[in-house]
Amino acid sequence: MKKRLMSLMLVVGLVATTVLSGCSGASKSSVTNKDEINVCLGSEPQTLDPALNSAVDSGTVLAHLFSGLAKWEQDDSGKAVLVADAAEELVDGVENADGTVTYTYTLKDGLTWSDGVAVTAKDFEFAWNRAASVALAADYGYMFDVIDGYDEVWADDATGSEKLNVKATDDKTLVVTLSNAVPYWNELLAFPCYYPVREDVVANESWATDPSTYVSNGAYTLTGWNHNSLITVTKNDNYIDASEVTMKTINFYLSDDANNQLTNFQNGSWQLIDDVPTNEIENLKKNYADEFVVAGQLGTYYVCWNINEELLPSTSTLTGTEKTEAEAEIRNAFSLLLDRNYIVEGIAQGGQVPASSFVAMGITEADGSEFYQNAGDSDSYDGYFDTSSDAYADNCAAAVETLKKYYTYDESTKKFTDVPTLTYLYNTSEGHKAIGEYVQSTLANYGVNIQLENQEWATFLTTRKSGDYSIARNGWLADYNDPITFLDMWTTASGNNDIQYGKGDNADVHAYSIDLTSYGYDLNVTNGTWAETYDKLISIIKSCTDDTVRYELMHKAEDMLMSTGCITPLYFYTDLYMVNDQVEGFFSTPLGFKYFMYVTYAD
Predict the structure, then answer these.
(1) pLDDT at position 28
(2) Residue 295 to residue 277: CA distance in whole angstroms
(3) What is the DSSP secondary-structure string of 189-207?
(4) Are the CB atoms for 54 and 496 separated by under 8 Å?
(5) C-beta contacts of 329-332 below 8 A and 24+ residues apart
(6) What CA–CA distances, in Å, run from 412 to 416, 440, 443, 449?
(7) pTM exceeds cut of 0.85
(8) What is the pLDDT of residues 475-520, one digit of tens each?
(9) pLDDT, tens digit, for every residue of 248-273?
(10) What is the pLDDT of residue 78?
(11) How many CB atoms lie within 10 A of CB 314?
(12) Which residues of 557-590 are buried (b: 16+ CB within 10 A; e: fewer)?
């Protein structure tokens, strides 16, 4: 899921973070109104339609407004666990003779929408088909490709009448059939795009923009939305588990100004903020020791390159496959010029881990080992290049030699003279700006002119998605604890494919190869398109039920991604936030979601 803010110490494993009361090193006002909590997770969300959302902060808001079949809770040990929500229980699937797997869910009694209408299994059937539809073209539509019938929905000759194999057999029974066994299926049920919506409500295309038309079925209702300022949600007394919800009102303040967030936290106006100025981090560690939190997250902060951006000098005569391979070499060379240790120690300053792969630290193999430690083909370091401080000089030297193959190099100035000017796009945040300035200044040392462009969050997402950029900052948090969540987003049709793999000019590029015959699959393509290779590889991975083979194939997928140079990983995420020391019952998960419904205040 898209990560908006800077985050800072990695904790491996899906362990929720709970905040208990404690003593702060700095004085501030005590909470006086204990019926509400004021928090700031970011600026104005792009959408609060669960099918269309792709951001973590607005996903947190949605987790309070909607009730899916499953939800994340925290057990007594502090671990994040999946439990039934709208469903009576999370059932085991039944394998059918053709290898498909069928799950039958029974909804709890008494489920209602915020307008009093009963929630039915038909609402889930409708919502899932809507979210997966070609017509909606949601970023996360591909999240439903594990369900039988998805391929028919998206087939080239589809008529629009095709549906997922999801059936409401009566008001309380939902039967869903998967194409094959999926190890992370229960986690999908807790993800926002799997939340129900009601057909008559969403018939109004602007339903999710105004509290007067917003209908949900979760622990809270949307009672106020002052755009670009404040979203207010109020406890839903008709929610099935309302007796467990302790916080009556949550005010989600909207701001991307880290200084503003910190000021409001320090004066007691806001009880949780999800960003702080980077130049204040050391002071906050000392003066707010019990309120400055650094927790684990399953995610990667990276730079993405538009694969259709021209990188070669105007004098270059390379075309076709040679051009594609040259640009991949160039991008990977630029990646080696960046000092990830400086970025995490000198800019972010919060214990992040330099990254040399895209799949994040904390994501495990079938045998329990770390996926990133098995990436690449080196015996001396993890991943696709050496991120150690000792290797940086050699990395830079190797990068320069590679770039000399394509650009004119002035030996007297030690700079290249004909690299096209590039633009680095980032969304509003001091941390993102600081990293952008570092990329700009570092590449300038080699004669590369990088211009910086800042956009507010919603505009930034639209620009990046449309491919109207050269280079952009990016971040991805796992949607569930499996490597495929970092890999299936790059298929041609994926709404999260901001790099534009298989799109635009790249759609007709024949430069990618894959051979899976040794695994028993009939896929052996040399110099094929992205759709003919990567897309088919991901499809095979999702149909594979042999864990050992499946993980080997996922490594091949990451090999393909990293070979393009379009993903420049910088560091593995951690989650930095501040929370008032009177707050009890708050928890977050390494997937990025934060939960306030069980909050109370210490006396």
Answers:
(1) 55
(2) 17
(3) HTSGGGS---HHHHTSTTG
(4) yes
(5) 329/402, 329/405, 329/406, 329/565, 330/402, 330/403, 330/406, 330/565, 331/305, 331/564, 331/565, 331/566, 331/568, 332/402, 332/562, 332/565
(6) 11, 21, 17, 18
(7) yes
(8) 999 999 999 999 999 999 999 999 999 999 999 999 999 999 999 9
(9) 999 999 999 999 999 999 999 999 99
(10) 85
(11) 7
(12) bbebbbebbbbbbbbbbbbbbbbbbbbebbbbbb
Q: What is the pLDDT of residues 179-235, one digit of tens each?
A: 999 999 999 999 999 999 999 999 999 999 999 999 999 999 999 999 999 999 999
Task: Please give the radius of gyration of the chain, using alpha carbons only, rounded to the nearest integer.
Answer: 24
Whether residue 354 contacts residue 387, with contact meaning beta carbons closer than 8 Å, is answered with yes
Contact 34, 266 (CB under 8 A): no
Does 21 score more than 50 pLDDT?
no
Q: Is the model's pLDDT at 24 over the cut of 50?
A: no
Q: How confident is the model at residue 29 (pLDDT cuts 50, 70, 90)?
A: low
If we measure between CA atoms, which residue out of 294, 334, 321, 263 comes closest to residue 40?
Answer: 263
Query: Could you tell me which of 595, 597, 588 has the C-alpha nearest to residue 15?
Result: 588
- Cα–Cα distance for residue pair 182/545, rounded to 1 Å: 8
Place of tokens 């070979």: 563
Mean of the per-residue pLDDT values of the chain? 93
* Residue 87: closest CA among 66, 114, 109, 102: 109
Q: What is the pLDDT of residue 14?
A: 52
Q: Tally Cβ neighbours within 10 Å of residue 313.
A: 14
Distance CA 289, CA 539 (A): 47
- Residue 51's φ and ψ, nearest 5 degrees, are -75, -25
| Cβ contact 253:38 at 8 Å | yes
Q: How confident is the model at residue 6 (pLDDT cuts 50, 70, 90)?
A: very low
Phi, psi of 318, rounded to the nearest 5 degrees: -70, 140
Instruction: Quote the tokens at residue 236.
Output: 């839903």
Cα within 13 Å of Cα(450), Cβ side:
23
What is the rounded distance in angstroms from the CA atom of residue 558 to the CA atom of residue 483?
A: 9
Ordered strands of the 586-588 beta sheet: 17-19, 586-588, 594-595
Q: How many CB atoms neighbour CB 292 within 10 A?
A: 22
Calculate mean pLDDT across residues 351-371: 93
Is residue 454 classed exposed, middle or buried when 0-12, 13-18 and 19+ CB atoms within 10 A define those classes?
middle
Banded pLDDT at 349 (limits 50, 70, 90) = confident
Q: Are strands 94-95 and 409-410 parallel, antiparallel or unpaired?
A: unpaired
Three-state SS sequence of 247-261: CCEEEEEECCCHHHH
436, two tokens: 């952008």
Which residues 6+ apart lie within 8 Å of 546 measured at CB? none
In sequence order, the β-bridge partners of residue 460 are none
Token pair, residue 504, equals 């635009």
Q: Residue 98: what pLDDT?
A: 96
Structure tokens given for 228:
């670009």
